[in-house]
Amino acid sequence: MGSDASRHFERLARDERREEIIDAVRAVVAESGISRLSISAVTKRVGCTRSLFYHYFPTKEDALRAALDQSIDSFMGQLAEWNSQRVTGDIEGALDGAAHMLKKLVLQQDDVMPRTVATGGNAGLYATFVHRVADRMARYICESTVVDFAALHEVRIDHLYETFYVLITGLVMFVRANPDAPEETIKDIIASTLHIEGYTAKYPERRPER
């Protein structure tokens, strides 16, 4: 039986091979599109056998989902950065930042995976991707941003997770269909859905009574 150190090394090696396969999936999709993604194309780029590929991923779709998970992790990193930069009491500033961030996430050009899935004709895969994005973002916001807000203000929506899930899903689809939509419009949609438009300069008369 090997030592703890040797098992740790073997685990790292396995993780590295898995990451190499995911990187190859992203490269093939970037160069040729999802329609030309194949296990043979991936294994050729990695320089591995099909049996090694199957050791990590039962199907090419599973490998593709893993590659998309990397994009979602990037999205979550940007969401966490936005959350950490919020200034207590500056709700309008937070809304401005949220509208800018969301539009950037949907339209960003530096990550080919979401863009390729959105335009590649695989509606089911894109729907799954949007669901996973909305689910993770909604849970994060409910566990962090909403908690901070509730410590100072009344939360005027019920079904918190469900509301944020629907809001995020709808905005992703809206921005994808309307890439030129002003960030101010996105901000208004967020504020009105969450009943916090009274904290903006546009609708001061709607501010809740203290």
Structure description:
The chain is mainly α and 210 residues long. Helices cover 72% and strands 0% of the residues. It has helices spanning 4-32, 39-46, 50-56, 60-85, 91-107, 112-119, 123-143, 145-150, 160-177, 183-193. Helix 1 (4-32) crosses helix 2 (39-46), helix 1 crosses helix 4 (60-85) and helix 5 (91-107) crosses helix 9. The longest helix has 29 residues, at 4-32. The protein starts with a helix and ends in a 17-residue tail after the last helix.
Short description:
The chain has 210 residues and is mainly α. The protein contains ten helices and no strands.
Tally the helices: what do you get?
10
Estimated radius of gyration: 21 Å
Number of strands: 0
DSSP helix fraction: over 70%
Average the pLDDT over all residues and give the rounded result: 88
Terminal Cα span:
66 Å
Strand content: under 5%
Low-pLDDT segments, ≥5 res? none
Shape: elongated
Spell out the helices and strands N to C.
Answer: HHHHHHHHHH
Instruction: State the secondary-structure class.
Output: mainly alpha
Biggest sheet: strands, sense, closure?
Answer: none
